[in-house]
Amino acid sequence: KKEARPVLDSLLSSLSTIIYTGLRPILIQELDLEPIAEAIQILKNDLLEQQVKPRGESLGALIPVTSRLLTDMQLRLAYRAQIYINEQIACFEPSTSDLDYPDCLVQKKEVKKNAPTEKGEATEEVKGNADKSLHSKLEGDVSYPTLRKTVMCLFKLRECVEAGAFSHLAHEAITHCTNSLRSASVIINNRKGSIHGHLFLIKFLLVLRSQISVLNISRHHQSQLDFSHMKDVISSLVAGSASLQSLLRDGTPNIVKREVNAKKMLEAQLKLTCEHLITRQSDVLVGDLAYALQDLKQANATARAKEKGNEEEYDEDNFKKAAEVLRRMILDEEDKTSKPTSTPRTKLTGTKKKSQRGLKGGLSHLAKNLRVYLKNKNMERMLLDPVCGNVKKVLLNARELISKSKRPEAKRMLSDLLQLESEVITMFQ
Question: Where do the H-state alpha helices sit in 332-358?
Answer without folding.
Answer: none
